[in-house]
Amino acid sequence: MPMDSKVFFSEVLTLSGGCFKHISNDQLSVSTPCSEWNLEALINHMVGELLWLSQLLGGKSIKDVGRSLDGDLLGEDFQKSWLDGCQNATKTVSSANLDAKVVLSYGEVTMRHYLNEVSCDLLIHGWDVAQSINCSLIIPVELAQFAYNFYKPQEKKLKASGQFGAKIEVDENSSLQTKLLAVVGRVG
Prior knowledge:
It is a single chain. By secondary structure, this protein is mostly helical. The protein has helices spanning about 5-15, 40-55, 60-65, 80-95, 110-130, 140-150, 155-160, 175-185; strands spanning about 100-105, 105-110. The chain has a two-stranded antiparallel ribbon with strand order 1-2. It starts with a helix and ends in a 5-residue tail after the last helix. About 35% of the residues are buried.
């Protein structure tokens, strides 16, 4: 039986946030596997994902949110911003009707789809954070399977969007984590 989307989200937050306690302020300028972002920008993006999720699953529209989540979302304490974002998003997700619809920039989807999209993004970016600070992050098989099942059918579309790296060929006997990372253009 596939993992529940809310459980997946919760486990992704725990896993992805695991390396945060090892980040010091002087590491925020280090590069990440996301070549356009340093670590601070990557964490800012992740916090932004949590804030957008809270707003949209909480009933607001993209127009309602507007540009309020643009710019620096970390302030003076990126750790606190991450934890606050996790707490708010978790509260919103726990009461959300995932069969309801939400309108995103690319169209209307179920809240479940949007939650899965954000969760998978946070999982991959959690791995990115770990790579940036030389922290080991092994994605549990059930989380890797969930994300792989979400991304693999969309691989061509994702590559065409320019938001994911070039196709990486991996051996069919590679670990599920390696296959997942390859789908999103990372070498694991």
